[in-house]
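Q: Two folds, back to back.
A: First:
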Amino acid sequence: MTGIDLIAATSDNTVVSEYTPLKRRSDAYQSEADLEKEFIQMLCEQGYEYLPVHKETELESNLRFQLEKLNDITFSDNEWKRFFNENLANPNEHIVEKTRKIQEDYVQVLKRDDGSSKNIKLIDKDYIHHNILQVINQYEVSKAEGVRHNNRYDVTVLVNGLPMVHIELKRRGVAIREAFNQIDRYQRDSFWAGNGLFEYIQIFVISNGTETKYYSNTTRFNAEREHERAGGSRKKTSNSFEFTSYWSDANNRIIPDLVDFTRTFFARHTLLNILTKYCIFTAEDMLMVMRPYQITATERILNRIAIVENYKYYGSVKGGGYIWHTTGSGKTLTSFKTARLASSLPYIDKVLFVVDRKDLDYQTMKEYDRFEKGAANSNTSTKVLTKQLSDPNAKIIITTIQKLSTFIKKNPKHPVFDQKVVMIFDECHRSQFGDMHRAVIKNFKKYEMFGFTGTPIFADNATKAGKNGFFTTAQTFGDQLHTYTIVDAIRDKNVLPFRVDYIKTIDSEKQEEDDELIYSIDREKIMMAPERISMVTKYILEHFDQKTYRNSRVYSFNKLSNVAEVASGKQGAVEEIKSKQRLSGFNSILAVSSVEAAKAYYQEFKKQMKADPSKKLRIATIYSYGANEAEPDGILEDENSEDTTRLDQTSRDFLESAIEDYNKVFGTNYSTGSDKFQNYYKDVSLRMKNKEIDLLIVVGMFLTGFDATTLNTLWVDKNLKMHGLIQAFSRTNRILNSVKTFGNVVCFRPLKKQVDQAISLFGDKDAGGIVLLHKFSDYYNGFEARVNISQVM
């Protein structure tokens, strides 16, 4: 800690700080009925009311009573019938509309018999313990209600009479995936039946007593959308199981047993906090339930803000802190939820949500704009920011580092500098350590500064301090408030492990690595030798389908002529099969050391694909002035800069030519001009996410901050180290479906030592076996870390 001494701390945290599992266990055989009985008993001991409701009429009658109690009102029969049929059980509304009513429109208007109106809360989000929690079991849905089969639901938690949490149980020893599949059938076949009240369920819990997980009501539909994008059918939705989550304590210790899960997740204040605060209904009508580490991080920051208010620690490092959540764990979601909750505090004037990119990509802007209309904008002018900072009604503002820095310079005496301002940095990388940070602490008098990062700057991976003296994340932002490392994320199956292959390309590499010799200019010339570039390109083309699972489907042709056309390399036939293959599998990024290398690889790929059309891929390249080998330590200093004005003419002309190739393929009209290049960047990002680009050649761009679940392979021909290495590798390990089981990394440089160091720093010293995957034969026969490229070509 940096000087804050707590006398007392609240025990009402949503996520328990540290949980010791109970020794009492039902380890002996336990039937599903016994498990259900024990579970309901535990809920009742925690203050839930058991309700012997099994029929639709009973459910509706209880709902009326509970809403009357919550809202201190008595419905007339006509008022209830009208309110129920129009507001609660409208036959034209289903899961999405009902989820919106719980998450956003939870105050509904009742038209009274006398013509007046009355607001009716479905759930009380201001005083959560006003809500009534009940539990029912074995609720029946019969064929008379329009379903094909009679159904009995295991256990359902009612909040103010509405079904909001459903629990499906299996006896010990049965895989919980069976419980997931059963809920899947209920969602598809019967939750909509009758009055459709079971479509109000927000969260599902599945358990076999030993293993317990939870997930949101739209997980299945999210999987359907992803499957459709991958060219599949709506019928196959099993991949969504990968998006179920474990519950844990604040130290990231998983709580899998149903007894312990019930004592923590189903604690009244925890469940109600999750339902009222920690669910996010997105711009795509998807419900996301935050994970325990995300909730913990949010509450740690809110708690620190309260302490700062009490102790008046504004304007100092004591009044801040940072969250270390590994890349791919949902930092942006956590940080924006934190910003939203902080902005609602009465003693905070403004919350600045600061991102480190020149522009927010379309989806991010759309997401942020949903929460705060007009808050996110990609206008490079600071006029909008100045207007927002001057508007007392604009509590939360999304901006970029560049615009904030310009605003400070142009408005040295602005009133906002004397207001209580919380600053939340979405990615607290080095870009905040220099003049930007200095300007903030010099001008803002009552700021509180918080940062989120997947790769903190420690003393071990820090570079030389600048003139302001800040060089580590802790020195810049303050205490480390919560940690969720890459090891935690892989263990929880929130991100995938990596499978790293080391491909030897020159004979001197082992000696160079062992002797820790410094790369020289001559060494880089060797790396750029045309023969080596050709050999690496050939390797990628030969192994592309294998690494990206493009060969995971077998195609049959009705006409023998098609086979002959493909075998002969006829352009149309090759394009046809390639377009089909593009629907399956994944895509990849090739990271190279310099603009010159990007040019050489792009030309070589075109050359080899022309010579062998069966290997044809859709390739693109993108780079800017900051992307070169000026970062010999592999730190990726100037991520995603979109400034092409300082490129030398040769590099700019080549990029112009590559963009023209891109325009011909996709029917676009981009160039290296300022605005058009930014739009090119956005378009490349979108097409990578849609798998329309097979291979993207980059130097520094897209190696940090770019998330695409469809990307599974990174080809590396550049130096990477410490947090730069972890950031680049983490482009590959986002969870998508059951086919994508790990992130592929293929290194054409001797990076094994750097990989081990990075994992030791950002996971723990024994993390290598968890974070990296090798082939079974490697474990069985002993692992040889490198492959000679000449032996596999």
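A: Second:
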Amino acid sequence: MVAADWPGADPAWSRELDVPSSSAADEPGTVRRWHLLDNGAELALRGLTPEGTLLCVHGNPTWSYLWRSLLAAGSNPARPWRVVAVDQLDMGFSERTGTFRRLADRITDLGDLTAALGLDGPVVTVGHDWGGVISLGWALSHRDQLAGVVLTNTAVHQPDGTPIPPALRLALHPAVHRWGTTTTPAFLQVTHALARRQLAPAVRAAFRAPYRGAGRRTGVGNFVADIPADASHPSYPALTRVAEGVRGLDVPALMLWGPRDPIFSDRYLKDLIGRLPQARVHRFEGAGHLLAEDRDIASPIFDWLADSLGPNGQFTPHPEATAPPNGQFTPRPEATRPPNGQFTPHPEATAPPNGQLTPHPGGAAWEPLWAPLTSLASGTAAGDTAVAEMAADRHTARSLSWSDLEDSITHLAAGLHDAGVRSGSRVSLMVPPGVDLTVVLYACLRLGAVVVVADAGLGTRGLSRAVKGATPDFLIGIDRALAAAAALGWSGRRISVRDLPAARRRILRVETSLDELTRCGASAEAADRLPAPAPDDPAAVLFTSGSTGPAKGVLYTHRQLAATRDTVAATLGIRPGARLVAGFAPFALLGPALGAVSVTPAMDVTLPRTLTARALADAAAAIDATVVFASPAALRNVLATASGLDPAGQAALARVELLLSAGAPVPAALLEEVQRLVPAASLHTPYGMTEALPVTDISLDEIRAAEADAAAGTVAGAGNGVCVGRPVHGARAAVVPLAADGTAPGDSPVTDPGVTGEILVSAPHVKDSYDRLWLTQRESVRTPGWHRTGDVGHFDAAGRLWVEGRLAHVVTTPGAAVTPVGAEQAIEQLDGVGLAAVVGVGPAGTQAVAAAVETEPPVRRAGPAAPELAGRVRAAARGSGVEVSAVLTVPSQPTDIRHNAKIDRTRLARWATRVLAGGRPGTP
């Protein structure tokens, strides 16, 4: 044993200890020699009193070296913690006992060790792999000392009737087991290869050090053999005791997870969440089984300890700023809602004045999302069309009246309930917007089920990652989605939209269909059997676009969904009876909640640019539309195909009163062109995000006024970004000033004109939390009462918000932070230039600014711009206060797959870095 050869581990931590054994595997009086890494002596030498002890237990075939980052972090004098990382007997550098130690023995062994160490409370257990089960077994036996539990990629239960993971089945196979785990180092090598960040040679050597030679790997083989594959296994009772006992642990818990784990998949995480519902959970996308090697786990663990541990050494509830409980953001007081139930446009007076920086006060009023729908179904409008969808032949494909819609929802909800969908069940909806999706969405919400919505626009990888991370209990989809579920291994019992032939059902493993469930639920007593969700129950997990990294699941409660409805209605004046063409999926689903007649045009909603002018006009004519919602990409294609409109289509669009576009910045020039198609409409571009839809609102007339103010310089702060208007009804907005390094480190929101910073919002309709992303959630609410959006911008003296880009896209030049949007807008005004993007090249803090532009007509190949164009681009950017070092041209900008409008600046920056370093341009 040469501790000096363990990179990242202080040799002083290494110690050995003789421990009397009480395990049934040993004879009475047996003493076992343990090895452990322990920073206790170091803390004592430095005169530091630890706040508690982290008891870290490794799995198979690692050893205490896995926890070296926690040992180092525990020595921080600001928050010292003793960290005891054990080598289990027959593992690491502990004694080779010559006995076969079962799970119950290992739990006893750990108790013997802690008794010999004299550990008292507070103790927080930390476990990985099968060390997680053993650490939890110790926790259940030492509740008087236990203060909390931390788990990384582990499991305590194997569902009945399901096989253990394939990798473990192979390792247990009689023909492979001894050879793979003991005779050769194959099991070690495979485990080390699971690190998603390849282990450095010295680190890999350290992990192998205790297991050189077959004689030192007996414990590795025995550990695998002790996996309880089924109820007949000798360790199954002990595993069951731990699994069921965990349900009674009422201490704080933290689960850190690597989803790319072929052994402990997300289904095991879901099981643990069910047993420890109080746990904070964070999934590190891209990380795998050896999470401690793939990601920094020390920082989140010690942040969690700091959040949870009070000054007296007792654990206290998490402060509101770190993880808001359900109901942190509540709807505005009932008194602000018009008494007649009609919603009026957002009055100017409700926009908070500069300096009003308190978060939204909240309130208790709540009316279920579907209340307007139910009201219309029982009133004089019951027979009128409520929801429709268009066919490619320009005719209405399907429609339901308000009463038919209500009946369909009630019957399906009853059928789903009888099929096992319960309050809290997660139901992934893989159904295109239209009649079917409307019915199943509202049916699930009525039951209190949590709908999971991740659209196909995320792409196959992004969609699969989202669905697997959400671990739905049920998956309802069209054939294509069900085929993907079968091929990609998505979880959840499967329900088809339509009845399928028996053979097809077997292939797709479909249990039933929406049609069948609706028939089964069609009874007079159906409504009486439906449970009623509470306002603060989880209602939906909606996934972001993934334009700045892996798509994030955003959790909403029923109260927050209802507040979204009320905010949209009050801000935009959408009243019951409005007629809405929804070319944007969220509004297709919100229509019935607004009491608006809704129609989905003939298009692929996952590809907004597939909306044509004719399809839009046909949909508008079908319901005599008063409102249209379409994304910028959709509007561009509508304009490009406008020549195909006939007089009837032109007339239908001329009757539109309100047109909304969001999802990406909408240039005023685009709106001006759209205005000619809908001459009677007021054009609005709400600014928002999946976490808060919407945040602000602005009309075309207000955009013109803001741009005039910017050009004239008459209003302080006007310009340098996209003006998105003032906060919507019931919302507050502010910024936290940006530092020179491109971060927004403060927690004091301001609205002073011209101060650029991260945009914050507080409103009743802001999301509850990020789903299973505790660290992301913690950062987003670190300013108490506010959601930090990740966008950057500033206010002008008139109280209007100007968006300057994403915090992640800020360029950090020497001594200054550069936001991209202002310079991009200036460049896009040049003749012969289409879309422009400004990105940083080089190390943070010393970055150079590069501009990538589309030309008109487009260039055939990407690469450095011609000198004349480069000069004009630099001059335009300089006029906005930005010095551009390099100018590149691209045939088209890379955009995120979902909106087709947001430029993927992260991808573009990587490409520009490669090109400017002399690499082949290729395609960005």
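Q: And?
A: The chain is about 35% helix and 20% strand.
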